[in-house]
Known about the structure:
Order of helices and strands: EHEHHEHEHEHHEHHEEEEEEEHH
Helix content: 25-40%
Shape: globular
Strand content: 15-25%
Largest sheet: 8 strands, mixed
Structural class: alpha/beta
Radius of gyration: 19 Å
Number of strands: 13
Distance between the termini: 56 Å
Amino acid sequence: MSAPLKFAAIGIDHRHIFGMAQNMIDAGAxxxxxxxxxxxxxxxxxxxxxxxxxxxxxxxxxxxxxxxELILLSGIPKDRAAWALRAMEAGKDVMTDKPGCxxxxxxxxxxxxxxxxxxxWSVDFSERxxxxxxxxxxxxxxxxxxxxxxxxxxxxxxRLNRASRPDWFFDRxxxxxxxxxxxxxxxxxxxYFTGSADAEICMASVANYANSDDPGLQDFGEVALRSDQxxxxxxxxxxxxDALPTWGDGRLTILGTEGYIELRKYCDFxxxxxxxxxxxxxxxxxxxxxxxxxxxxxxxLIDDIxxxxxxxxxxxxxxxxCELALEAQxxxxxxx
Length: 336
């Protein structure tokens, strides 16, 4: 039996690193160390979650360790591309938090580096890869349960949690804009569930309706897109009220020619828990508890690193999601 894959984290500024690291551990990988710039407000929680994982003296210590094969990145969004380039140049594969990059120049540099080094650059789109309900929906769609998928409607509301947000959260250049950041999740799901290799951005808009004291924050965004396979609509925002028992009522509707699926990912009123899947077809109309459907992305990524395959997510898909998000962001800001 081969030794477990060893990974390290560079940058823990976003709490998504908690799920990225834990899911890699759950898939059988070994957390070998971490380093971050400064002292982000996530650090106390991170060290409590992973008390046995030691902080390295520098990022170079981790990048120079030949036993470490994968680097996880969840620093300030504008810095992630540069760290990905350093990691790949050092012979490491990369799993980055979204957004994996915040400018087209960064994306171009990542594409060039991947082509030259042969390294894997994977983006953990957590609203797909860390949601068991999406795993079950994927199986149902693959089995033809709702026919051909012709549209997705993705809703990504989030709670602002102003008091806990660092300064970079309110800096447009630091986080990349609300579409580049949050809506990348829904663009990923549109391409995946419609089986699209590319898409056209038909409409995109951003605004700041409720936070005028923070002009760098975009608190609302929407996108309409289409491909030769289907249509999609996306809405993202920072308006989740405090009374909701979780950070956001994320939903995905997948419309097929013979039925539809609605995912109520994180909560559903009148029902406990997460991962509620509603399935309606010609002979089924039911609510399914999908909480035990699994999270195959992480194990597949380990296999891809070992075998140099693309079972977790193709490299072309990761690039295309980021490209479309950046295009939609630019379109929205040009029309704002």
